[in-house]
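Interim report, section 4.2 (structural modelling).
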Amino acid sequence: MRPFRGNGGSGAVGSAVRASRMTEQDRHAALWDCIVGRRSVRRMQERNVSRGDLEALVEAAAWSPSPHKAQPWRFALVDERRRLQRLAGEMAAAFRADLERDAVEPATIERLCGESVERFGSAPAMLVPCLTMEEMRRYPDARRRRAEEEMAIMSAGAALQNLMLRAHALGLATCWYSAPLFCQEVVRRALDLPAGWQPLAIVIVGYAAVSPPLPPRREFQSLLRYAEAANA
Ligand SMILES: Cc1cc2nc3c(=O)[nH]c(=O)nc-3n(C[C@H](O)[C@H](O)[C@H](O)COP(=O)(O)O)c2cc1C
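Predicted structure of the assembly:
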């Protein structure tokens, strides 16, 4: 099968139809390869990622499950050097302020902030997933408001997993960073995000410059508990 490159006019439905023509075995093998083979890659080559491929990642996110079919996430695409560097600089300044408040020693602050600028400023591209509660339900009480927001955040996680799996299938590497959660206003301003978009993360996207070792995984059996009468 020819690899699918970007959405170049073929559209989401076209790629879903192509997938359905695979045998069950092929489909499972391809999916399992993506699930197990995807890695968080923290160092990328300088090579640019095409906008078609970046759009294809957002297209994959759009196919993820969401509460009330609301799709309560949006994505800011950042692939211009100046914008990446501005964002990296402003996030590092916010990080520095937090570290100073924590009385971290100055040399450590310099090192951590330098690494942060390098990490985000040198990425070929990034997608910044943002939460929007616009089409979610509005409740008068805090308990249900919180549940509704948690549902929306969970669905952002599903969207990001779809996005990262498709990146892997396209030969691209990704790493999910949580830094924006700690400085949402800074990110919102640096990217001129629309009102109501809450930045949740940064997913850097590029061609891997390193091949990270496989992080340890728990045996899945240890994650599983049979909810049977005998356990009651
Ligand atoms: C919600 C979430 C937040 C994460 N935040 C960071 C982060 O801030 N910095 C980082 O280096 N990796 C981050 N990661 C990536 C994890 O470190 C990575 O998934 C884990 O080490 C397992 O490696 P793997 O993705 O290659 O399987 C995050 C992953 C998730 C799901």
